[in-house]
């Protein structure tokens, strides 16, 4: 097969979608011709260009000049649209990540010029009442007909597309994790502190402000001893975390950390915190749970796909600061008084992730989705 991936941000952005493309394209490039086309737009440049190209050494990588409208995602500059379409037409199939409107409209209007089969990749959660205004929905549904196949990372998006758009050729294939890299965390009985980890972009959507309030509540209301917060990431709200680290001695802010260092940080952890307002299927959660960490996260699509409430973690109503803090306290007390039971929980969590989300399983499903798309198959799952 000859497969091209398109992303409206540069791979130097280093976010979840960019990591997904990098891993999937690297795997497929051993057996297929693979190309990646990205726009040169980036909100936070976490990786250098040569770092990206070294990760995808057998893949053709193109960056197209872009323009960013006041709302929505970046779009290719009009003069370069023909260049983009010519690249697409040199492949059998093009996988397009659709983060939000109006990107799908551009491909709908260009469909007559595209000979390749198109696959729409939904790496976030679409909600008609939030991301798509009621008046735009009929047009949105119409524009999606230019795609042959639809790939979603969580069940809620699958149900949404199935029910609202009445599409049948939808593939639910979740995100994956390299369980060989993210190994079981260290023995909890050997630690002098209960280490709570947050890893991800520090933005409103990821709940950076909620994270701040949770830490304040734990430190000022619960006043638990031997608690340490280890925060990894960067973003528009990083100033809030920096101020918090200056105020509290048990808050350690690492900033952006390379993926080579992340496994070492997770291995030191005892609990993972993910208070997001919106997610597709967070890679950081899979990495933490592959390391055996129970997780306390928002009860939203993407997170609730991964966490088994009461077994591998706790699901909390988004923004409920006190409930987040109480869940942290419950795990803290379990770690403090029953380290052997905590270790059993670690092993149970890791097994669940390895059995269901390891890349060895997920990559085969993605390859099969592409094969069925080119074979005119419309299997749903």
TrEMBL record:
Ranges of residues in domain Glycosyl transferase family: 190-350
Keyword annotations from UniProtKB, A to Z: Transferase
GO molecular function ontology, one term from the record: glycosyltransferase activity
InterPro entries: Glyco_trans_1, Glycosyltransferase_grp1
Highest taxon of source: Bacteria
Pfam families hit by this protein: Glycos_transf_1
Name assigned to this protein: Glycosyltransferase family 1 protein
Species this chain originates from: Fervidobacterium pennivorans
């Amino acid at each position: 097969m000859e497969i091209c991936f398109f992303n409206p941000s540069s791979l130097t952005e280093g976010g979840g979608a960019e990591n997904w493309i990098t891993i999937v394209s690297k795997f497929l490039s051993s057996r297929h011709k693979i190309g990646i086309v990205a726009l040169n737009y980036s909100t936070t440049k976490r990786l250098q260009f040569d770092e990206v190209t070294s990760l995808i050494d057998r893949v053709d990588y193109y960056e197209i000049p872009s323009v960013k409208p006041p709302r929505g995602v970046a779009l290719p500059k009009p003069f370069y649209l023909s260049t983009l379409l010519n690249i697409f037409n040199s492949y059998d199939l093009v996988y397009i990540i659709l983060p939000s409107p109006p990107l799908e409209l551009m491909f709908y209007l260009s469909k007559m010029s595209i000979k390749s089969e198109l696959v729409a990749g939904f790496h976030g959660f679409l909600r008609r009442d939030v991301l798509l205004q009621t008046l735009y929905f009929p047009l949105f549904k119409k524009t999606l007909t230019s795609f042959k196949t639809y790939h979603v990372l969580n069940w809620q998006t699958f149900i949404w597309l199935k029910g609202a758009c009445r599409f049948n050729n939808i593939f639910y294939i979740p995100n994956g994790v390299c369980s060989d890299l993210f190994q079981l965390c260290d023995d909890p009985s050997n630690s002098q502190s209960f280490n709570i980890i947050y890893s991800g972009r520090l933005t409103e959507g990821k709940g950076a402000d909620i994270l701040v309030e949770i830490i304040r509540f734990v430190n000022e209301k619960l006043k638990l001893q031997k608690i340490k917060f280890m925060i990894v990431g960067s973003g528009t709200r990083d100033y809030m975390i920096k101020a918090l680290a200056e105020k509290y001695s048990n808050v350690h802010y690492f900033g952006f950390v390379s993926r080579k260092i992340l496994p070492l940080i997770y291995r030191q952890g005892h609990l993972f915190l993910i208070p997001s307002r919106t997610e597709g299927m967070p890679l950081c959660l899979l990495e933490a749970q592959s390391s055996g960490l129970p997780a306390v996260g928002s009860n939203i699509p993407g997170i609730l796909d991964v966490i088994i409430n009461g077994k591998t973690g706790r699901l909390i109503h988004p923004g409920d600061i006190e409930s987040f803090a109480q869940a942290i306290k419950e795990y803290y007390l379990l770690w403090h008084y029953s380290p052997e039971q905590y270790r059993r929980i670690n092993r149970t969590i890791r097994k669940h992730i390895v059995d269901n989300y390891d890349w060895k399983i997920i990559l085969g499903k993605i390859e099969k989705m592409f094969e069925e798309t080119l074979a005119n198959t419309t299997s749903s799952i």
